């Protein structure tokens, strides 16, 4: 017995070392999946509070560019309103049918605006933290876009903050298509450069040209169809390959990202339920 | 007592500097120095090993919380802290009863440089391997390890040489 105790005392440091390493390793492995580890991630309130503070300083220097973007968007929206008002005045509704209320297809999406308070672009797995959370109606799996294009998908949500998996993370693959020809493929980040990603699954008979626009397809529940993703920067195909290797220049500049919109797809639950039910 | 205060101050300062400044640095897409490891390097030599491990774990977990990397920094930091004593013994011969803080002055220039280089490279290698855990791209990883280690080493040696005494 005495020997046993001596043994433990003698090697206590090694046991402590192993114990701490096992804890760390468990944390790493657990976090590989879609875990809701809000505690100890940057949607934790202490951590995100500090990021919010640091962001308020940095944001000042980006104000000018953000203002330009906003005013451009404003004018575009105003033009749209005028167009729509004109159309509306020519179409008089006949009856309002409250019994058969449903969300019409073109109003399926609502936008929640949010601010980026932390964003990494140089890791192999990057994440973005937003300053809105469950209180503002954000749920997991919602899509995130900026004025320029697709940003990513919400991963975890706390009350006041949420974490996004951006395109710059090999954990997500976003379904995209060519604006010109409607061929769909998956967009996957290569882990090298925050400006480029790869488009996979495009067969060799598809006709491509440099500069072709790539937009989201309607196959994901997180994004409406037609959000810009990027343009073709370069493509290659070997004699023996069946699929193209396409390099896509992303529409969004993740280094200057400051304001984003979270997409709330109102029919998400209904669609998902139906899909799950039909698979059973 | 001043050593304790000095170290607490250094801990806070390095964590803040790491998460607010260095984590945003992206030179050539490969260089992301992890200077916070300097905290472990600069602790007194005779600090009890169990306490060193606990400190390393706390430091790593704090950095993890800020960079969404759950456990990676904790793992690498505890690992490097565990082998610190061995590495110090390898390069220097400190007499019993002495308790110096590692620096050019106490270790000698060559021994201190070797100590810093080895510690930083071990730490960065483990960290970047863990980061690439679910994704392989070996040459990029190697480039990141070497370039980032180099910058971290230069920063640490720079800070150390500015310090007087």
Radius of gyration of chain B: 15 Å
Please work out how many helical segments of chain B DSSP would assign. 8
From the alpha-carbon coordinates, what is the Rg of chain A to the nearest angstrom?
Answer: 24 Å
Number of domains of chain B: 1
Weakly predicted, low-confidence segments of chain A: 97-102
Greatest interface by residues involved? A-B, 41 and 36 residues
Highest CATH level, the class of the domain at 174-250 in chain A: Mainly Beta
The protein's oligomeric status is heterodimer
Strand percent estimate of chain B: under 5%
Largest sheet, strands/sense/barrel of chain A: 6 strands, antiparallel, barrel
Helicity range of the residues of chain A?
25-40%
Low-confidence stretches of chain B: none
Order of helices and strands of chain B: HHHHHHHH
The tally of helices of chain A reads 4
- For the termini of chain A, the CA-CA separation is 59 Å
Mean pLDDT of chain B: 84
Fold-level CATH name of the domain at 174-250 in chain A? Thrombin, subunit H
Note the run of SSEs of chain A as H and E.
Answer: HHHEEEEEEEEEEEEH
What share of the residues of chain B lie within helices? 55-70%
The number of E-state strands of chain B comes to 0
How do the strands line up in the largest sheet of chain A?
1-2-5-4-3-12
Structural summary, described in words:
Chain A has 280 residues and is α+β, with helices and mostly antiparallel strands. Chain A has a domain at 174-250: Rod shape-determining protein MreC, domain 2 (Thrombin, subunit H). Helices cover 31% and strands 25% of the residues of chain A. Chain A has helices spanning 2-10, 12-30, 45-90, 268-279; strands at 109-119, 128-130, 143-145, 150-157, 162-166, 174-178, 184-188, 196-200, 213-216, 228-236, 245-250, 259-265. Chain A has a 6-stranded antiparallel beta barrel. In chain A, a hairpin with an 8-residue loop joins strand 1 and strand 2. In chain A, 30% of the residues are buried. Chain B is mostly helical. Chain B has one domain. Helix content of chain B is 68%, strand content 0%. Chain B has helices at 2-20, 38-41, 49-67, 72-82, 84-91, 104-107, 109-131, 138-162. In chain B, helix 3 runs antiparallel to helix 4 (72-82). Chain B is globular. The two termini of chain B are 19 Å apart. Classes of the chains: A alpha+beta (280), B mainly alpha (165). The A-B interface holds A 12-13, 16-17, 20-21, 23-28, 30-32, 37, 40-42, 44, 47, 50-51, 54, 120-125, 127, 129, 163, 170-171, 190-194, 255 and B 20, 23, 25-26, 29, 32, 49-50, 53-54, 56-57, 60-61, 64-72, 74-75, 78-79, 82, 130-135, 137, 140.
């Amino acid at each position: 017995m005495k020997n046993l105790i001596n043994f433990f005392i003698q090697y206590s440091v090694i046991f402590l070392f192993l114990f701490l390493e096992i804890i760390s390793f468990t944390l790493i492995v657990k976090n590989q999946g879609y875990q809701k580890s809000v505690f100890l991630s940057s949607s934790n309130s202490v951590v995100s509070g500090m990021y919010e503070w640091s962001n308020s300083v940095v944001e000042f220097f980006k104000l000018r560019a953000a203002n330009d973007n906003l005013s451009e968007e404003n004018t575009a929206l105003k033009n749209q309103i005028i167009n729509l008002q004109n159309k509306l005045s020519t179409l008089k509704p006949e009856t309002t049918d409250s019994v058969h209320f449903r969300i019409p297809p073109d109003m399926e999406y609502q936008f929640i605006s949010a601010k980026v308070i932390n964003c990494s672009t140089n890791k192999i797995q990057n994440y973005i933290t937003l300053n809105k959370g469950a209180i503002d109606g954000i749920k997991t799996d919602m899509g995130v876009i900026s004025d320029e294009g697709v940003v990513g998908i919400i991963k975890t949500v706390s009350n006041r903050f949420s974490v996004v998996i951006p395109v710059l993370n090999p954990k997500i693959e976003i379904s995209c298509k060519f604006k010109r020809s409607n061929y769909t493929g998956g967009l996957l980040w290569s882990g090298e450069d925050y400006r480029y990603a790869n488009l996979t699954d495009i067969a060799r008979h598809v006709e491509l040209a440099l500069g072709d626009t790539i937009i989201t397809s309607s196959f994901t529940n997180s994004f409406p169809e037609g959000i810009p993703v990027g343009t073709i920067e370069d493509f290659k195909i070997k004699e023996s390959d069946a699929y193209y290797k396409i390099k896509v220049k992303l529409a969004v500049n993740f280094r200057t990202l400051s304001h984003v919109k979270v997409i709330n797809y109102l029919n998400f639950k209904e669609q998902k339920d139906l899909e799950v039910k039909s698979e059973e | 007592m001043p050593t304790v205060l000095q170290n607490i101050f250094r801990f806070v300062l390095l964590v803040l500097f790491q998460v607010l400044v260095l984590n945003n640095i992206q030179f050539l897409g490969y260089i992301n120095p992890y200077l916070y490891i300097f905290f472990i390097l600069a602790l007194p030599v005779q600090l009890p090993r169990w306490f060193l491990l606990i400190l390393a774990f706390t430091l790593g977990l704090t950095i993890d919380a800020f960079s969404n990397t759950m456990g990676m920094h904790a793992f690498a930091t505890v690992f490097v802290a565990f082998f610190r004593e061995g590495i110090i013994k390898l390069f220097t011969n400190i007499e019993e009863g002495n308790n110096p803080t590692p620096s050019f002055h106490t270790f000698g220039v060559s021994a201190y440089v070797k100590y810093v280089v080895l510690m930083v490279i071990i730490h960065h290698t483990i960290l970047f391997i863990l980061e690439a855990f679910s994704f392989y791209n070996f040459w990029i990883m190697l480039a990141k390890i070497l370039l980032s280690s180099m910058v971290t080493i230069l920063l640490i040696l720079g800070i150390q040489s500015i310090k007087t005494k």
